[in-house]
Amino acid sequence: MAASFLSSPFSHPLRRFTLHHLSNKPVSSLFLCSAAKMNGHVYRVPALDEEEMASVAGKTFERYALPSSAKRNGKGTAILWFRNDLRVLDNDALYRAWSSSDTLLPVYCLDPRLFQTTHYFAFPKTGALRGAFLMECLADLRKNLMRRGLNLLIRSGKPEDILPSLAKDFGAHTVLAHKETCSEELQVERLVDQGLKGVGNGTKLEFIWGSTMYHKDDLPFDVLDLPDVYTQFRKSVEAKCRIRSSTRIPISLGPTPSVDNWGDVPTLSQLGTELQEVTRGMRFVGGESAGVGRVFEYFWKKDLLKVYKETRNGMLGPDYSTKFSPWLAFGCISPRFIYEEVQRYESERVANNSTYWVLFELIWRDYFRFLSIKCGNSLFHLGGPRNVQGEWSQDKKLFESWRDGKTGYPIIDANMKELSTTGFMSNRGRQIVCSFLVRDMGLDWRMGAEWFETCLLDYDPCSNYGNWTYGAGVGNDPREDRYFSIPKQAQNYDPEGEYVAFWVQQLRRLPKEKRHWPGRLMYMDTVVPLKHGHGGGGGNAQTSKSGGFRGNHSGRRSRHNGP
Ligand SMILES: Cc1cc2nc3c(=O)[nH]c(=O)nc-3n(C[C@H](O)[C@H](O)[C@H](O)COP(=O)(O)OP(=O)(O)OC[C@H]3O[C@@H](n4cnc5c(N)ncnc54)[C@H](O)[C@@H]3O)c2cc1C
């Protein structure tokens, strides 16, 4: 669909920031430690070199391997269709494909639709950084499969064209894949099914559930009756469900059929996207080996799991939170693997609130995944799951100031620059920029959600649109309607202005106390005219005596124990 930018007046004027809302909550000194390490450079995540990463991955594969005596009873050829499950460890579809065949063909289809545009606003569907991350995931997956006697067939094209033709050529009895839940992915599943039926050689299509920590079949209610309140969901699964053990994978998975050309991992230019180097901030390394490496680094090497709950609201540096999300989104690591590593850490080192809190967050991830089944396409609609009616602007200039980090509000601009430079933004940052776009700028929340879809390395439709609907106040739970006061967030989470100065160069020469309030035109070429003529620039906020900033949102529940 073509971009449509309407220029209607704002229904939610940008509100004036006042110091009135600041509080003096101290941040953990740990944020500052990891901030200091960034030092203005590119920080590789994980920071392990290739040799250490390979050694960690090798040891982890051994720990989670099935004994070599494991039996394989199947016959014939099975095709394993890799989707967002680019891993060997704890891969149920891989295990099932191996055990139900005597020859296994792993396939990845580079679907051109991934490189088209987003639904409403025609942004690139996959930004260059996520494209590059995906290519690294494929190269690593191929390497790890080859170690086990397989390979990865990489084909460019639509799965519904490629898989039926391969099924025919190789006489496969089954195509196995992990199940997805959102409409675009479900449509591909339907087309593949039709394609296989069209070939007429009886190839079955089998889907396996494998993206969540709690298995869908173990939920204590039908997924369509999922509670609308996260806490109810969490308490119910914690009380009534068990997390299944991760699936052990044999050390040897061969043989694989002979194939003339396995296909190269394409370059970005072959996909019509230009390479983008990370010039500042975190540079995430794609693939299962790097994902397993990051778990090792965060839990075992740096021993950070025990302080996660104190540091998780940070914004600067690699170590305030786990940074597992890009690997989780591509399925390079599974949440059950993380769960087992948390358990191991709890028995070998310490069990405390922090070790539990990583699981608490992973339950949010599960929740949004299950919610996508319950809510269907309403997750992507303006009114969201509750069909909330409202007036929203699609003002292009205003949106671009947000997207390009040129609003004049340092904490917004720094976060948006981090996103476009690295493909990552902290959870704290995401909540702040989301609230700003929706409530201060009054823009259609889908513009923000689609821009996140373009940029995020960890983009996942369920978590992205689930969180955006909550942030916009149109989510399934009306109580999850929160307003984030920009001055208060700045004071609480970046009191020294280190984060904003890291991303907005012009702020570095300012004294710390001025970094969030630099004054108009301090670092921007232009100032977007806003409805009440605030003209951007936190400088106005310093002098404002108007305490009405929170406007009609003042009675909202503040974020406590939220995602
Ligand atoms: C507007 C908005 C959009 C978001 N879009 C995405 C997205 O597309 N993909 C995505 O994975 N996360 C998304 N999140 C959730 C969250 O911000 C990221 O998962 C988190 O910042 C990733 O960093 P981390 O791995 O260090 O998280 P940690 O704090 O270390 O948490 C551990 C894991 O828990 C899960 N998790 C934590 N918070 C959430 C949450 N609120 N919702 C769902 N899962 C969570 C993630 O898998 C994360 O890797 C979004 C949040 C907001 C507010």
Automatic annotation (TrEMBL):
Q: Which gene encodes it?
A: LOC108851469
- Which GO terms fall under biological process for this protein? photoreactive repair
| Family from the record | Belongs to the DNA photolyase class-1 family.
Q: Which InterPro entries match?
A: Cry_DASH, Crypto/Photolyase_FAD-like_sf, Crypto/Photolyase_N_sf, Cryptochr/Photolyase_FAD-bd, Cryptochrome/DNA_photolyase_1, DNA_photolyase_N, Rossmann-like_a/b/a_fold
What keywords does the record list, in alphabetical order?
Answer: Chromophore, FAD, Flavoprotein
List the Gene Ontology MF annotations in alphabetical order: deoxyribodipyrimidine photo-lyase activity; DNA binding; FAD binding
Q: Provide the site residues for: Electron transfer via tryptophanyl radical.
A: W392, W445, W468
What ranges does the record give for the region Disordered, renumbered to this chain? 533-563
User: What's the name of the protein?
Assistant: Cryptochrome DASH
Q: Where is the composition biased (Basic residues)?
A: 553-563
Species the sequence originates in: Raphanus sativus (Radish)
